[in-house]
């Protein structure tokens, strides 16, 4: 018996097949670009997602696909797909890095339990209602990315609390805020009914099964957002368990049995199980490092790592990675970045090294906000494709001042999605969570580094001084 996890990410779609013991036995992926036709926009055609799914599925062994008995979904959070009655997209999906709605946030009452960012579904839908009214009048559903994909495969139109609570249109439990939706002038009928992430939400259609090489009629779990799926796939179970994920963006989350109190700049969200988590969400991790790699003309990532970590850290050069605004802890969509302190003698290795440090310091800012709220975080699990190089892991440990344990699962969110499929089928139950947790290996222990601490202090000071320029 096999279970398929589908992780619909910002820049790629990933598939993982796990066996009846939760072990990953096959993996594939397909990358795609994010369209930025105008400054501040971030969109992807849903046809691009579908093509990526078909391509990734074709790379999986045919016999393993035939053994799949349930599917679970993980998806990039916050964005939105506007569809007609049949679930056909009316326009490209709008994604979480999109900032075109940044001037519309004053419609949300203050303070909010969770911070509101321009790329959340609520602000994006308000922008559509104001700027694409004719299209909005034809809409029937406003779906989260993973929910659109599930319906494309023949599943039910529904959503789960882990995604709903991050739309800026629901309370932290995930229940839709009808009064707020009405205040914003959005149709309440756009928003799908709620069900648990692990609930069955339809079966695979014959057409989709034929396209993907799977068996028609197999159960599909409703699914969850990528961050809660990564927590599930990484084995976060106990109150206080912490996880750092690094991908296009970065997240630091801490599990909680009860809803954490509201803290400015941090998020209180529902997990893929019936738990909660507190999160610091940073937009500029992989997206900033990839931009820097391109600017500095490194043809491969190994070359970028090699030159960056062979270079001495500069005591003058600081990189602010805020290329697309920032969420935690600043909640500043207007934030911008770049290098400061450059001299004529700098090398591209020095600049790349400063970029790695700047991203690490931005993650530290989010972690420090969690610590200030009462979280005593000294150990974290580490997941995400952007944290494999041991030199980068050591820098993260040193900058964050935490012990990092790498999860023995390179595709945590995809694995978490597959586990949800097993729960929906009834193969696993809540009591099995502990036995499903993957092993985690010590990856890096923090080392005292006074010079790094000074560079971090300068980074924080420069952020505060330069953001008034923008």
UniProtKB/TrEMBL annotation:
UniProt keyword Kinase present: yes
Domain annotation Carbohydrate kinase FGGY C-terminal: ranges: 244-424
GO biological process, one term: carbohydrate metabolic process
The keyword Disulfide bond appears for this protein: no
Gene3D superfamilies: 3.30.420.40
CDD domains attached to this UniProt entry: ASKHA_NBD_FGGY_EcXK-like
Domain spans labelled Carbohydrate kinase FGGY N-terminal: 4-233
InterPro entries for this protein: ATPase_NBD (IPR043129), Carb_kinase_FGGY (IPR000577), FGGY_C (IPR018485), FGGY_Carb_Kinase (IPR050406), FGGY_N (IPR018484)
GO MF entry, a single one: kinase activity
Family: Belongs to the FGGY kinase family.
Name of the protein in its database record: Xylulokinase
This protein's UniProt keywords: Kinase, Transferase
Organism domain of life: Bacteria
Pfam hit, one: FGGY_C
Ranges that cross the membrane: none
Alphabetized SUPFAM superfamilies for the sequence: Actin-like ATPase domain
């Amino acid at each position: 018996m096999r279970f398929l996890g589908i992780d619909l990410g910002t820049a790629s779609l990933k598939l993982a097949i796990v066996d009846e013991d939760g072990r990953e036995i096959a993996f594939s992926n397909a990358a795609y670009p994010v369209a930025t036709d105008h400054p501040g926009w971030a969109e992807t055609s849903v046809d691009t997602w579908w093509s990526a799914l078909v391509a990734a599925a074709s790379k999986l062994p045919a016999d393993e696909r035939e053994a799949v008995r349930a599917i679970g979904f993980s998806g990039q959070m916050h964005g939105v797909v506007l569809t007609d009655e049949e679930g056909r997209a009316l326009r490209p999906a709008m994604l979480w890095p999109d900032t075109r709605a940044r001037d519309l946030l004053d419609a949300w009452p203050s303070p909010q339990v969770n911070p509101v960012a321009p790329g959340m579904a609520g602000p994006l839908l308000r922008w559509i209602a104001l700027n694409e009214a004719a299209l909005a009048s034809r809409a029937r559903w406003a779906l989260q990315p993973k929910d659109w994909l599930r319906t494309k495969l023949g599943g039910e139109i529904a959503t789960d609390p882990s995604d709903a609570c991050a739309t800026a249109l629901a309370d932290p439990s995930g229940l839709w805020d009808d009064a707020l939706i009405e205040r914003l002038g959005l149709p309440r009928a756009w928003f799908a009914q709620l069900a648990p992430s692990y609930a069955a939400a339809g079966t695979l259609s014959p057409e989709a099964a034929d396209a993907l090489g799977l068996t028609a009629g197999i159960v599909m779990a409703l699914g969850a957002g990528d961050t809660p799926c990564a927590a599930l796939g990484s084995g976060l179970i106990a109150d206080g368990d912490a996880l750092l994920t690094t991908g296009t963006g970065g997240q630091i989350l801490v599990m909680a049995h009860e809803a954490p109190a509201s803290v400015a700049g941090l998020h209180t969200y529902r997990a893929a199980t019936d738990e909660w988590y507190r999160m610091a969400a940073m937009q500029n991790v992989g997206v900033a490092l990839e931009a820097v790699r391109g600017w500095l003309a490194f043809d491969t990532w190994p070359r970028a790592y090699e030159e960056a970590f062979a270079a001495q850290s500069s005591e003058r050069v600081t990189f602010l990675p805020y290329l697309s605004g920032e969420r935690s802890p600043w909640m500043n969509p207007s934030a911008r970045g770049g290098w400061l302190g450059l001299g004529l003698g700098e090398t591209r290795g020095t600049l790349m090294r400063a970029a790695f440090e700047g991203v690490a310091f931005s993650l530290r800012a989010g972690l420090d906000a969690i610590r200030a709220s009462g979280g005593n975080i000294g150990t974290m699990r580490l997941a995400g494709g952007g944290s494999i190089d041991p030199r980068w892991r050591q820098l993260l440990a040193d900058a964050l001042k935490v012990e990092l344990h790498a999860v023995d699962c390179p595709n945590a969110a995809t694995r978490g999605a597959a586990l949800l499929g097993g729960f929906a089928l009834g193969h696993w139950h809540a009591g099995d969570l502990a036995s499903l947790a993957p092993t985690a290996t010590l990856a890096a222990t923090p080392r005292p580094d006074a010079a790094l601490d000074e560079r971090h202090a300068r980074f924080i000071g420069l952020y505060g001084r330069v953001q008034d320029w923008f």
